[in-house]
Amino acid sequence: MDIRRVSFAHPDAVALNDRVQREYAVRYGDEGDVTPLEPAMFEPPSGLYLIVYDDLGTPLSTGGWRAQDANAEGYTDGDAEVKRMYVVPEARRRGLSRLVLAALEDDARTAGRTRMVLETGVRLPEAIALYVSSGYQLCARFGPYRFDELSRCYAKPLVTAAVPGPTTAPATTTPATTAPGPDARRGTATR
Hints:
Low-confidence stretches: 168-191
Structural class: alpha+beta
Order of helices and strands: EHEEEHEHEEEHE
Mean pLDDT: 87
Strand order of the largest sheet: 1-2-3-4-5-7-6
Number of helices: 4
Radius of gyration: 21 Å
Shape: globular
Helix content: 10-25%
Distance between the termini: 28 Å
């Protein structure tokens, strides 16, 4: 498998987006996702768009994130919103969504985003299962579907909590020739 950073306007991205839109339309009986998306939204450092290709160069999976900050649609400062996660039917159940999601989370974290958010719907139970099993939890609704009863919004913190360093023993008198142990130099570690 080959994961490539591409533009949201790349022909393969457009073709996969068309496929996911058709799937949304079938599952929801409407025109698909009406969220306005522009290629610039997925350009670093405020976004990323990925496609997974097989060894023959066939595009199999896609996904992206775009930066969001506090606004009237319910986002909060530091959000990175997952968009257009999709795997073609013939490549499903191979772990491609999980691979793309992890890469998006890593990139958003590196870009300084503090929370990954996404909107999906009750008619995409396999998507909900992926997100829940990846550590996402239901959150306050946001975005264009925040008032839709079929919509579900999920979030996952991207910042890692500080891991406490070793406990410091009370000071004792030590000969001057004794070097401090490795814990004395390490201090507080973070993950």
